[in-house]
Design brief:
Elements: H1 2-18, H2 28-37, H3 43-46, H4 52-61, H5 73-89, H6 101-126, E1 150-155, E2 161-166, E3 171-175, E4 181-185, E5 189-194, E6 200-205, E7 211-216, E8 222-226, E9 232-235, E10 241-245, E11 252-257, E12 264-268, E13 273-280, E14 286-293, E15 299-306, E16 313-317, E17 330-332, E18 337-343, E19 352-358, E20 371-372
Antiparallel strand pairs: 1-2, 2-3, 3-4, 5-6, 6-7, 7-8, 9-10, 10-11, 11-12, 13-14, 14-15, 15-16, 17-18, 18-19, 19-20
Length: 384
């Protein structure tokens, strides 16, 4: 939410007050770098008619430390309304010439508009009516040749970027709306997830790059978080923790901080069990995973547990979760649905499709039956 407030408010309020953009650049990368590393000119320096009160609001919107920025759009509206009231009553400090009342009123209107936009975004995002079915559409994002197919991918939390790796070992960044592609690395890294700041990726490496790394999307700079190769990793929704499987197959879920601090075994399983993939509950309080069992009670299940491996709940028991091409990814959406990929009901187990099953985001208990979302042929669909 704070990122959305920043992007809407910074651009609209600063431009309304000064007639200029707060951050300039010839490309999206340069603009992002400016946002991270440069301070915009104070509004009153660009437009001397901007009052100290209005400037204070804009500077708080543009504050680099997100904990010091406005936390809610309603706070912007309140401060702008207070400025409008003080301006109209003559109480506004006049260290600089005060803006015309119409200018302050317009900024108030903009602040209210921002509040409505943010509220609308959360309303649309948070709708939980399972009866509303929307047609699933697809469009190609990448155009790799068959001899250099896409290997892994991860879509940014705002849906603007796709980070993906290919069989040649390149890690690339695609801007979804423009189709612009930029190579981040050629060191055989695979994208795992996006950190909440949308400026860094969690990536995994093998060979000389074995382990987990934090990578900047601006220049590809990396910092190692974990030294050993992992089979699967998943970043918690708030970006504070990383869950991972050290081996393939794995019998333990490991957990550590986002910078690799305090790594420890969080959940252990029977010697006849092994885990195939891993995800998080939206609240960050539970894991979801696919577990296979060998021996007399052989089978494959979709299951969840708490962060200590307890309170395990069975969501689905289905041998098709594990097809000849392995197991796809998992993602637990805020509306309670778990999206995963599995072969369809036919005899061709090589054709994977996206499936959904709804579970209680607090207890992890099943709330409905699995539903197939797609009917693709000759597809090896994966969740990313």
């Amino acid at each position: 939410m704070r990122a959305l407030i920043f992007s809407l408010s910074a651009r609209v309020l600063y431009e309304m007050a000064t007639g200029k953009m707060p951050f300039d650049g010839s490309s999206s990368g340069e603009i992002c770098a400016a946002i991270l590393n440069h301070e915009p000119a104070p509004p009153s320096q660009v437009n001397p008619r901007v009052s100290s009160g209005v400037e204070a609001v804009i500077c708080k919107v543009l504050e680099k430390d997100r904990n010091l920025r406005y936390q809610h759009a309603s706070e912007i509206r309140t401060d702008l309304q207070r400025l409008k009231r003080d301006s109209e009553s003559g109480r506004l400090a006049v260290a600089k010439p005060a803006p015309r009342r119409s200018h302050v009123a317009l900024l108030v209107a903009v602040g209210v508009s921002i509040l409505l936009v943010v509220a609308g975004w959360f309303y649309v995002r948070g709708r939980k009516n399972p009866e509303v079915k929307r047609e699933i559409t697809q469009r190609p994002l990448t155009a790799n040749p068959p001899d250099n197919a896409v290997q892994d991918g991860s879509i940014s939390r705002d849906g603007k970027y796709l980070a993906y790796s290919d069989h040649a070992g390149n890690l690339s960044l695609l801007q979804v709306d423009t189709g612009e592609v930029r190579q981040l690395s050629s060191a055989h890294f695979n994208p795992v997830a996006w950190f909440p700041d949308e400026n860094h990726l969690l990536v995994s490496g093998s060979g000389e790059q074995a382990g987990l790394w934090r990578m900047s999307i601006f220049d590809g700079a990396t910092r190692k978080i974990w030294d050993e190769e992992v089979s699967t990793a998943a970043l918690s929704p708030d970006g504070s923790s990383i869950a991972f499987l050290k081996t393939d197959p794995a019998q333990e879920i490991w957990l550590m901080g986002a910078d690799g601090e305090e790594p420890h075994s969080a959940a252990s399983f029977d010697s006849q069990d092994f885990l195939l993939t891993l995800g998080w509950l939206p609240t960050g309080q539970r894991f979801v995973y696919i577990r296979a069992r060998v021996g007399d009670k052989a089978g494959v299940v979709l299951e969840s547990c708490d962060l200590k491996g307890g309170q395990r709940t069975l969501l689905l028991s289905e041998r098709r979760l594990w097809g000849p091409n392995g197991v796809g990814g998992l993602v637990w959406l805020p509306d309670g649905r778990i999206i995963y990929s599995a072969p369809g009901p036919g005899i061709d187990l090589s054709e994977y499709n996206l499936q959904a099953i709804k579970a209680d985001p607090t207890s992890g208990k099943l709330l409905g039956h699995a539903v197939r979302l797609t009917s693709w042929e000759h597809s090896h669909a994966r969740v990313c």
